[in-house]
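Issue 218. Parser rejects a valid record. Input:
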Amino acid sequence: MLQTRVIPPAEGAYQYPLLIKRLLMSGTRYEKTREIVYRDKLRYTYPTLIERVARLANVLTAAGVKAGDTVAVMDWDSHRYLECMFAIPMIGAVIHTINVRLSPEQILYTMNHAEDRFVLVNSEFLGLYQAIAGQLTTVDKTLLITDGDTKTAELPNLVGEYETLLAAASPKYDFEDFDENSVATTFYTTGTTGNPKGVYFTHRQLVLHSIGVAMIMGSVDSVRLLGTNDVYMPITPMFHVHAWGLPYVATMLGLKQVYPGRYDPEYLVELWRKEKVTFSHCVPTILQMVLNAKAAQGVDFGGWKIVIGGSALNRSLYEAAKARGIQLTAAYGMSETGPLVSCAHLNEELMAGSEDERTTYRIKAGVPGPLVEAAIMDMDGNFLPADGESQGELVLRAPWLTEGYYNEPQKGAELWAGGWLHTGDVATLDAFGVIDIRDRIKDVIKTGGEWISSLALEDLVSRHPAVREVAVVGIADPQWGERPFALLVVHEGHAIGARELKEHLKPFVEQGHLSKWAIPSQIAVVTEIPKTSVGKLDKKRIRIDIIEWQANNSTFLSTL
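Output the parser choked on:
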């Protein structure tokens, strides 16, 4: 350790801890009258938000929640979720954002593993919660959330209904200082193998992530995305990495915030129009649903900036959104990274290039943000050059990356092998510092001695005019090891077979963009592609389905 000069602080100097409460208190200094909106049911201003957070803190404290306890939330995206994201960690407890789209067995596992003591349950999830309540091992009390409906709840140790309790509570609460390294949030990954893993973040990490995101999205002129005049509506669930941390950023900056509840594409379009939304973020599949909504047909979405993450942003979707007035920008991160670590950036050289070149860089994972270090590593732990060609695993360092998995030290050690966070993504770094994600390590297709990127192949397949949605996976082949298999959803009134797809891909082979071995010899046209609980392509499920189809000689398989 380097021996440096450390001067002790002056007597009485305030040691400023980085706590989530600092983000909440910052918002009102910009625009006190800006609103927090929940569907068509409720709207209030920032001073009211602060009061409601204090009321909730009083409710939780009176119910017996103590510092260090874990409080679980089962709700759709709402003002209540925002209040919980502040009030629970601000009293020193930990908020567990439950992924309500997991199976009941997985939800039960995560709640017991996280040692939840107190649960807030939306009335829509009463059946789900009651089915597992008898097997919960640590929960002491529950609190009911409703939208003003009259549904009654038979919940164990029910404290009361959310709004009724808040109305009776004091609007004042003295939020004490404590160690900034205290855990503030936890949630569980949606991995495709084994049980979900508990990811956690401290107050310090979340404050630094919020500042980093504000800089990445608000200070890079070539893709300036977010400022104090924007109207924010998340289309990434709040249970998934705190809606990518953007509610914390939006509150810190005092933005108008619009929460849509349960996602319905038709209603999302209505909210966008009514509330004049200018900034959102989502995975590609959710955006496709919005663009395909009946309410979206013929609509010019000019002025709507959307960050795409969770899955690769392909050129076809970028161009389709652009034609509708939407500015898409790719960003990169994962559950364990807070999540944001990079965002598309066009430097002066790229800005002076062609529109095609600018698009190419707008859909890449982008340049690491301030305070983020990125490198490419081979299987032996050696660093590879940033030449845009050398492929290896993307590894990261930043002050807001999770430091492990809850109660799973061995898996945490694997995540941080060698002092770098291992993403599990195959990528390159180029001379511009741009990260280009080539694939998940587990999704790379190994055929005929070559590695084929399923993401690159999906991008090229998506450019066929008949294709609305595509997923490509590797399927075992006795001769080649693996062969690519494409699963397609086509636009209404269109058709495509394996031979038509081959003809579409041949020019990319001739231009050197694609290996001839990458052309799928089999495809399946389906009405829907399996997704995970957060809207990503579920490639594990897809592989299982394809094997079953092949075994049954399904008629919708098309073979060269």
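Fixed in the parser; the record now loads. The chain has three domains: 25-201, 203-440, 445-559.
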